[in-house]
Amino acid sequence: MDLSENVRPVLEQKTIAIENALKLIRDDLEKVNLEFRKNLRSDVPIISDIGKYLLESEGKRFRPILLLLSAKLCGYQDGQHIPLASHIEFIHNATLFHDDVVDQAAEATCLPIPNGEMKRVCFSGTSSSPRVFLS
User: Fold this and answer.
1) 125 in helix, strand or coil?
2) Fewest CB atoms within 10 A around its CB: which of 75, 76, 80, 110?
């Protein structure tokens, strides 16, 4: 018997369990994405560009998912978990960019911007009022 024959049913069961868990929070996760998008609206074009980049990167959103599942598990219904999950994702992404800048990781911190240049990006400020510095 091939090892893959033994592993496949286990992986299929885990995949079904994850899909079922995500079904429980699908609506909330969409609200988190809308909140994330709202927090990245700005009159400063580079902030909007970075926001678009982050939203289109289709990251796992693991941290917001954990928060939303925890809220569901605890029966939380007040609604503050949505902006909190969005802020957690924003902070996570900002720290990744910041760490890359500190480490001078040129590839990870260079984002395409509309005029075709590549810029080094550093985030600061708070999750609700981000600031972006270019170098």
Assistant:
1) strand
2) 75
pLDDT in tens, 21-76: 999 999 999 999 899 888 877 887 777 777 777 777 766 789 999 999 999 999 99
Nearest Cα to Cα of residue 97 among 83, 111, 84: 111
Q: Is 1 helix (H, G, I), strand (E, B) or coil?
A: coil
Residue among 113, 132, 111 nearest 123 (CA): 132
How far, in Å, CA of 48 to CA of 63, rounded? 22
Q: Which domains does the chain have, with CATH numbers?
A: 3-134 (1.10.600.10)
Phi, psi of 4 (to 5 degrees): -65, -30
